Amino acid sequence: MRRLLIGVAIAFLLLFLILPLAVIFVEAFSKGAAVYFNSVNDPDAWAAIKLTLFIAAVAVPLNTIFGVAAAWCIAKYKFPGRSLLLTLVDLPFAVSPIISGLIYVLIFGRQGWLGDWLFDPKYPVPHWVGFAQGWPLNFDWGPHDTIRIIFAVPGIVLATVFVTFPFVARELIPLMEAQGNDEEYAALTLGANGWQTFWRVTLPNIKWGLFYGVVLCNARAMGEFGAVSVVSGHIRGQTNTLPLHIELLYQSPGAYAGAFACASLLTLLALVTMVLKNFIEWRHARAARETA
Amino acid sequence: MRAPRGKPPEPIASAELSTTTTEYHPVQLLMSIHAVNIRKTFGQFIALENLELKVPAGQLVALLGPSGSGKTTLLRVLAGLEYADPGSNGRVYLHGEDVTNTPPGERGVGFVFQHYALFRHLTIFENVAFGLKVRGKKTRPPRAEIEKRVNDLLDLVQLPGIAHRRPHQLSGGQRQRVALARALATEPKVLLLDEPFGALDAKVRKELRRWLRRFHEQVQLTTVFVTHDQEEALELADQVVVMNNARIEQVGPPQEVYDNPATPFVFEFLGNVNRLELTAVPNAPAEATPAQGAVTYVRPHDIELLREPAVDTIPVIVHHVFAAGAGARVQVVGNKTGEWFDVEMTRYDLDKLKPRYAELVHARLRRPRIFTKAGTVPDANPKSKSV
């Protein structure tokens, strides 16, 4: 009976998890290694990779700061509106990614609330201020332009920040609530100021939880498709992130293997994330055992 | 500030009297801690109601009360971890200095938390050194001096050789003493302990209690500790502050509050007591009748059982005799009133009396205290004076 159950479980895992993963790599190399490396080496693919890394490099630190601040606020203080804030932190998880993208189009798009003002040629700004198309990949000190957010990189950053906001905060709130305020109060009575208390007491106590949240946040920031697809405009080499680039290749005739080649990169990222996640959980469990 | 070693305490009061003239109020001068008009509310809940606390220098004072009586809140107000309500005009003076709006780190108080709140990721050495290391460059002692002071403190709390360990590797009693060493590292003028023995098992608790008493005699630092355990407060403290319902009920030396409780609450909270509502106490003053809401309190060991009636006895029926150990307890019920009460006597007296079940005997209340709604009836107990 036990063998049967284990067998069923393994068969299920093979069919639904291992097989699709394997298919990605098999398809990626189906036309040979040369095609694989050409697809990855393609300028548009490189642009997508660079853009994806850039987006993550902006969104993850932002959400680390926001997440720690929100978790600190919610876990360590009692104030009116606390549960409302807690609900708001969860909002991006509840909202469909399409909506997450669309809200920014409705605000910053040409027909959006701020559209008239943003696209008014009366207020020109230099390219380097205006987030001109292609920023920051094709840095261009060109003529004056208007501020671009939608169908440009700032929009993608905004959508990604929105979608990935809950990861860090969600990870930290239960942890910080469980740890209570006593150590912070102890630091205060010993003469530490707020900043010293944060760096010397709070942060070391939450570091593994924080690291875990950051890893998950990063994985999602690099892999996000829906919200980014709405705001990106799909401009090859300029506003296509790696997931959008994969979709584009997959839809275009003859680039089937290329799509899988790029997909294999994202898959590798996922595998690295899983390994990191397991490592952190192991360390975390050890730290928890030690302090218990 | 003085080092927490075996030196005699500085005569703070007289020293400051000779140097200052108008800056300090004389009452504050004598007091290490003086808190006035402290009112603290959490929403609708009143935690502290306009109370005043004075602690003379060098004393060990217990804040005693049931949970929710406001004792921990008062301690946190003294430490600056909570602030009295802004409109309440409350002030906190430490050694004559107004620290009402001073942040906790600048008040010169050491605080030991109920669950110690040791920094779990730091070694014991780093824990104790924390208060010195967070100081600004100008006031921070050099590294060698920090090291020396931390090791001295660990010797003082009798935990040498554990500097490299982490909090989770220590027992509860050891953690408690590390927390104490950490609080003393910044050379506080006042030491505040929140339920210092609350999280320890009974045996360790008793040991550590004695240790703390000796320790206090050694360092002579003004110390206030919070407890809900009357035995702890009575055994350890120079002064006991009994708190109830956001107020201070009574302040006095342990024997004083035990022998002469100022209010019915103190009577019931400290030690065993019989509460008699109907019993007509012989020789009771005329105004102390049940109709006036009069209640009589008498300790079980202040009741004498006699074979023969006398003018000041009441007839009772023996219901249960419990004799094990050094003392004996007899449960009796008033023959006329039907009220139950306990009597404690020595085994010697028990053997003399030999009370049996359902036997009629006579009880003499040696030191009854009668409280009416208005307050104590003084005639019934000439010794009692509100403290």
Topology:
The complex is a heterodimer of chains A (292) and B (387).
Chain A: H1 2-28, H2 33-41, H3 43-76, H4 82-94, H5 97-108, H6 115-118, H7 127-130, H8 153-164, H9 166-179, H10 182-189, H11 194-223, H12 226-232, H13 242-251, H14 256-291
Helix pairs in contact in A: 1-14, 2-14, 3-8, 3-9, 3-11, 3-13, 5-8, 5-12, 8-11, 8-12, 9-11, 10-11, 11-14, 13-14
Chain B: H1 12-19, H2 26-30, E1 31-42, E2 45-56, E3 60-64, H3 71-79, E4 91-94, E5 97-98, E6 109-112, H4 124-133, H5 143-156, H6 172-184, E7 190-194, H7 202-219, E8 222-227, H8 230-236, E9 239-244, E10 247-252, H9 254-259, H10 264-269, E11 274-276, E12 295-298, E13 303-306, E14 313-323, E15 327-334, E16 340-346, H11 347-353, E17 360-365, E18 369-372, E19 375-376
Explain how this protein is built:
The complex is a heterodimer of chains A (292) and B (387). By secondary structure, chain A is an all-alpha fold. Chain A contains 14 helices and no strands. Chain B contains eleven helices and 19 strands. Chain B has a six-stranded mixed β-sheet, sandwiched between helices. Chain B has a five-stranded antiparallel β-sheet with strand order 13-17-14-15-16. Mean pLDDT of chain B is 83; it is low at 1-28 and 379-387. The chains are: A mainly alpha (292), B alpha+beta (387). Chains A and B meet through helix 10 and helix 11 of A and strand 6 of B.
Mean pLDDT of chain B: 83
Helix content bin of chain B: 25-40%
How far apart the termini of chain B lie comes to 33 Å
Helix content, binned percent of chain A: over 70%
What is the succession of H and E elements of chain B? HHEEEHEEEHHHEHEHEEHHEEEEEEHEEE
Helix-strand string of chain A = HHHHHHHHHHHHHH
* Helix count, DSSP H or I runs of 4 or more residues of chain A: 14
SS content category of chain A: mainly alpha
Overall geometry of chain A comes to globular
Q: Structural class of the secondary structure composition of chain B?
A: alpha+beta
Radius of gyration of chain A: 23 Å
Describe the sheet with the most strands of chain A: none
Across the major sheet of chain B, the strand order is 6-7-8-3-9-10
The chain pair with the largest interface is: A-B, 19 and 29 residues
Number of strands of chain B: 19
| Number of discrete helical segments of chain B | 11
End-to-end span of chain A in angstroms?
38 Å
Low-confidence stretches of chain A: none
Low-confidence stretches of chain B: 1-28, 379-387
Strand content of chain A: under 5%
Cα shape of chain B: elongated
